[in-house]
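Re-running the complex after MR caught last week's input typo. The corrected sequence lines follow. Everything else is unchanged.
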Amino acid sequence: MKYLIIESRDPFDSGDVPQLYALAKSLRADGNEVTLFLVQNGVLAARPSKHSDALSAVAKTGVQVLADEFSLRERGIAANRLAGGVSASPLDVVVDQLAEGRKALWH
Amino acid sequence: MAKTLTFALMDPPYEDARSTTALRLIDLALRRGHSVNVFAYEGAVYLPFAKQVPHPNAVHGRDVEQEDHPNPKNWIAALLALARQNGSKLDWVQCGLCVDERGAAESIEGPRRGSPADLFKFVEESDNTLVIPTR
Amino acid sequence: MAKKILSIIESAYRATLEEQDDTIVWLTHALKGAGASVDVLLRGNAVNYAVKGQDASGLAFGDKRQTQPPRIDEDVAKLNSKSVRVYVVEEDVADRGIEGRQLIAGLSAVPRAGLSKLFAEYDQVWHW
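Corrected-run output:
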């Protein structure tokens, strides 16, 4: 199965974000194809920082970790200097993956 | 291949980035030729509220025209027009009870009053559904 | 056959006094009534919705008293009677110091490690 998890919250502000990272890893460990798409303040974790190692760890499990290009630019985060395993992406990917029929949940 | 996507929204305008991201997604979906259903629940029923009015910005030294302050009702009107131009569909339903309790009945042309039964119908008839919750 | 939906509720006590409901628990009742196939997973602070004996009565502003306070535990319990399965995340309950005997009857506890398997049973997974 394929999943799309849209993370709009960031670990600096929300104690629940690590649970969503863990959910993404768990879904992946069970053989699912998983995209974790960071949007809005969710991209704050994509800048190399105190919390970005946790995000890189998610990517290391094979979860595709993407960060909305617009949200990155809006926050002055350089798209070519993101935490390991995180790639900048247009928001179109969300629409495409919804159209693909992925189970999609927004956090 | 064109699909039908349903979005359930909850946030009112001017309170959270989610409402803008939702409109970005709807815009992208329509540009790709997909049809879109929107179930506006709770505060989201204020998104197409007809009485939104732009204002100047004295802090930035801009008059009304210069500030060109967005009113989401105009963004939604533009999305409805985009759907018509593309030959796809944007069906925007406002949860009726949410409208009533908020006094938000005056909407731009296009959105229609509905109920959770419409959300159920949307879900059943569309290819996928994304709930964008509030906090 | 209707699509099978797992509706995850995390946000808790948001405007419940004004609404006299949790609006997602309410929506779940309404969708079920419309014919939806929907179950609920309570996670995060929303696990507190399953605690028995919540009492929000007594709110008054001037001489305007609230006559129908929310009774969220009862609303959640009624989901069971409509064949809506209500799951709670075990660790979220424990983390909040809630003991099993404090919870309404009829819940299905699921560990965090079991969520992936649970999600696989549904066509759509919504998160509120």
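None of the earlier attempt is carried over here. The first strand of chain A starts at residue 2 and ends at 7. The CA atoms of residues 69 and 90 of chain A lie 5 Å apart.
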